[in-house]
Automatic annotation (TrEMBL):
PROSITE patterns in alphabetical order: MFS
InterPro entries the UniProt entry points to: MFS_dom, MFS_trans_sf, TM_effector
Predominant localisation class: membrane
TM helices/strands, residue ranges: 41-64, 70-92, 104-125, 199-216, 249-268, 280-301, 313-331, 337-363, 372-393, 399-418
SUPFAM superfamilies per the UniProt record, alphabetical: MFS general substrate transporter
Localisation per UniProt entry: Cell membrane
Location of the region described as Disordered in the Swiss-Prot/TrEMBL record: 1-27
Pfam families, per database record: MFS_3 (PF05977)
Keywords: Cell membrane, Membrane, Transmembrane, Transmembrane helix, Transport
Annotated Major facilitator superfamily (MFS) profile domain residues: 38-425
Domain of life: Bacteria
Name used for this protein in its record: MFS transporter
Membrane topology, record value: Multi-pass membrane protein
Length: 570
């Protein structure tokens, strides 16, 4: 029992903060996150690892061609590196929220190292086949699946909240600097020593990340109710994503862009080998142009972001990327293709860093890794399926059509999609806050389902505004654990509204009280509270489903009370 809005107690933040003092540089500076020792060390280690990964990608795609693979088989290399992420990233995200993220990252890096080392050894001995190449590429992707949500989720622990957009840009520049250097190094090594050398250096590149993570003394997670079970954590993450429309807009933009934009990445090796007539070194140069463009984009995007806003940046960058993709696939002039690849790198990082920073700012600590898993699911799934589709198009109609079709679709879909599902532009405070009234002291965690009934007294003139204010409150209840939610108006007393929601177990409801509330959720509830009748407070009741209240066949026993009888004035 109780009333809504009792304590209004706010917690200190959305999880462990950075271990060092705030950046004393210019606010909004691109370099501010690098002044933090742990972020800087991990950033450098990631740069080495990303460089090795791009060397491995070039080697794998080139080796597939040497093993007799055509355009479709070469495109399958990208599918092998993304499809495992598509299949495993959701449970991996749940593990990132219920396990120590540092330990999970160490295990995932060990898996990736094992796959890279095995591929290097097998290729050096000359026994690698197309199937083995795809299988070991997929094993490395398994390690990536378990590391990506956790790595993204720890970013707010490494930098301040105000530095998250800059951290997203720096991480994007990291990957793209590696894309500029890695393919060129990979092409040189392939020419000098063969693909096995690129695979061996890729395996060695993960040792730096493992060393930094091993040295990190991450504070223990604060979980008053202990860790969740994996199946419960997966369901909670899915429920959160379904009930978070702002985050859903980010996911929609991500999957649309990834699906159509994947055509260039999947088919660029075939374009280099075929119409452009390039060798491994030339292919590395093409990828290097994309990476250099992305680095240039990292410097220009902060100024553009202030002027244009998120929706305008994503729309203009996606359309520009599509135009560059059409140029790359249809113009046979190498200089023009390199220039178009440079510009495509700028637009690529503009879209992805904007979407990535939005994701981090929209998610609370308790579900950050598992919700970011859906972001990766949208991105990697779009890439994996897109690579298959555009590879098949190239096999049937030629490379030019496989570049032009996704480019045209991206131009048509981006403005329409952003009009129908715009990205959020306001600031949402997702720090933890306890705004629920205290639950009954005798609420046992094994009991359930739990029915929460809240009676609100609202004057008729405020009824419409109250119903509108309660819709986002209902979404907040679902995000934090409610399986069903409803708002009813008393037919006999029009001043009374009854809110009901069910939670699967008392354990889940206790998590709503102690772990999952945010300042944003509290603000939504306060907007509804402002419309209640003066001098009244909502009245809360907790009801537990009891099978003991159900009489057996032919046996006498207490009747199960209906919801109507529970709400009837007594």
């Amino acid at each position: 029992m109780g009333t809504v809005g009792g304590t209004g107690e706010a917690e200190s933040g959305a999880g462990p903060g950075p271990s060092e003092t705030p950046d004393r540089g210019r606010p909004g500076s691109l370099w501010a996150p690098l002044r933090r020792r742990l972020f800087r060390a991990l950033w450098i280690a990631q740069l080495v690892a990303n460089t090795g990964t791009w060397m491995q990608i070039v080697g794998a795609q080139w080796l597939m061609g040497d093993l007799g693979g055509g355009a479709f088989s070469i495109a399958l290399v990208q599918t092998a590196t993304t499809l495992p992420v598509f299949l495993l990233v959701v449970p991996a995200g749940a593990l990132g929220d219920i396990l120590d993220r540092r330990h999970l990252l160490l295990v995932s890096q060990a898996i990736t190292f094992t796959g890279a080392a095995a591929l290097a050894a097998l290729t050096a001995t000359g026994v690698t086949t197309q199937a083995l190449l795809l299988a070991l590429s997929a094993l490395m992707a398994v390690g990536q699946a378990f590391s990506t949500p956790a790595f993204q989720a720890i970013q707010p622990e490494l930098v301040g909240r105000e530095e998250i957009p800059q951290a997203a840009l720096l991480n994007g520049a990291n990957g793209n600097l590696a894309r500029a250097v890695g393919p060129a190094l990979g092409g040189v090594l392939i020419a000098l020593s063969g693909p096995a050398a690129t695979f061996a250096l890729n395996a060695a590149s993960f040792l730096g990340v493992i060393a930094v993570l091993f040295a990190w003394r991450r504070p223990p997670d604060h979980r008053p109710l202990g860790a969740e079970y994996i199946h419960d954590a997966i369901r909670a993450g899915a429920r959160y994503v379904r009930s978070a429309p702002s985050f859903g807009a980010v996911l929609w933009c991500t999957v649309t862009f990834a699906f159509f934009a994947s055509g260039m990445w999947a088919l660029l090796p075939a374009l280099a080998r075929g119409p452009l007539g390039l060798g491994a070194g030339g292919y590395g140069t093409l990828l290097g142009a994309v990476g250099l463009g992305a680095i240039a984009g990292a410097f220009t995007l902060p100024r553009l972001g202030v002027r244009l806003g998120q929706n305008a940046i994503v729309a203009s960058a996606a359309v520009s990327y599509a135009v560059m993709m059409a140029v790359i696939g249809t113009v046979g002039n190498l200089a023009v293709v390199i220039a178009a690849l440079f510009l495509s790198g700028m637009t690529w990082i503009a879209v992805l860093s904007t979407l990535g920073a939005s994701s981090l700012l929209l998610l609370p600590e308790w579900t950050r890794a598992r919700a970011l898993a859906y972001y990766q699911l949208a991105f990697m799934g779009g890439q994996a399926i897109g690579a298959l589709v555009w590879g098949a198009v190239a096999g049937h109609t030629g490379l030019a059509a496989a570049f032009l079709l996704p480019a045209a679709a991206l131009v048509l879909s981006t403005p329409v999609g952003l009009r129908r599902v715009p990205l959020p532009t306001g600031h949402l405070d997702m720090r933890q806050a306890r705004h629920f009234p205290e639950p009954p002291s005798d609420l046992a965690s094994h009991e359930g389902p739990v029915l929460v009934v809240i009676e609100w007294c609202v004057r008729p003139e405020n009824a419409a505004a109250f119903a509108a204010a309660m819709r986002p409150v209902g979404q907040a209840r679902r995000r934090t654990g409610a399986t069903m939610w409803g708002l009813f108006r008393d037919m006999e007393d029009p001043d009374v509204f009854v809110e009901t929601f069910t939670v699967a177990t008392a354990y889940e409801h206790l998590r709503q009280h102690f772990e999952r509330g945010t300042i944003r959720d509290r603000e939504l509830q306060e907007q509804a509270l402002a419309l209640v009748a003066p001098g009244t407070r909502p009245h809360v009741r907790h009801l537990i489903w009891s099978y003991a209240a159900l009489p057996g066949p032919g046996a006498e026993g207490p009747e199960l009370m209906s919801l109507a009888s529970l709400l009837r004035p007594r």
